[in-house]
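Notebook, student rotation project (T.W.).
Task set for the rotation: take a protein with a known small-molecule partner, predict the structure of the complex, and write up what can be learned from the model alone. Partner molecule chosen: calcium ion. Sequence and SMILES entered below by T.W., checked by me.
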Amino acid sequence: MRLNRGSLSAIGGLIAIVWVASIFSSADEPVEQGTSTSPTQTASSAPASKSSPVASPTVSETAPATASPEPKQTSTATQKPAAEPTALQELIGQLVVASEQGAGYDRDLFRHWIDADGDGCNTRREVLIAEAKIQPTVSGDCDLSGGQWYSVYDQVTTTDPSDFDVDHFVPLKEAWDSGAYAWSSDKRKEFANDLGFGGSLIAVTASSNRSKSDRDPTDWLPSNSGYHCSYVTTWVKVKIRWGLTVDSAELATIKDFGKTCN
Ligand SMILES: [Ca+2]
Ligand SMILES: [Ca+2]
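Predicted structure of the complex:
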């Protein structure tokens, strides 16, 4: 076979192309291997790192198993608050029990309905103004007109403040019997005009106030049964505020409410 110069150069060109192509293809291979190795490595290292997550699922599987006792712990934790004293029970813990000392009581020993701040409105009017559901107009000698009041003891609403009494939540006689007998006249006056705590005095119908008279919760509760827990709680707060004692029957009544009232 005779090959001319042209065909030789063509063959040479082909060889050169094949050689260059082989160089590039073989040069690619290590790169491919390299890139393929690194995924394999990450793939192989991934299972390795997965082996710990794989182990952690087992842990987390046991975690729910240990988590199942946890709900039991929280259930015992939810039982604890049930065993914890109610708000009223905590207050009851501050009460001091003593027999009543009834001798020597006179209502006049408690000077009440003074005008402590000298604004022309005595304590009774101050309470009516403070507790009005619709504010009255105050004029002249602290005359109240146009207001509206609600008696929570018996759920009665009025627009005539003369229908309402301002009740000493802990009656003066009850206060006397449970410690005020030993107070100074000034302290008794402060008690009888206590505007420093909203529970000490309350505007209610004159009829409910007179029904209550000087009785404690053992012997009298408001006809509004939905208010009983608030009533007993406020009673206890006033007793504590003034360091007044409770008699044993009174304490038993309050404790009964303490079981259910918060
Ligand atoms: Ca006043
Ligand atoms: Ca009592």
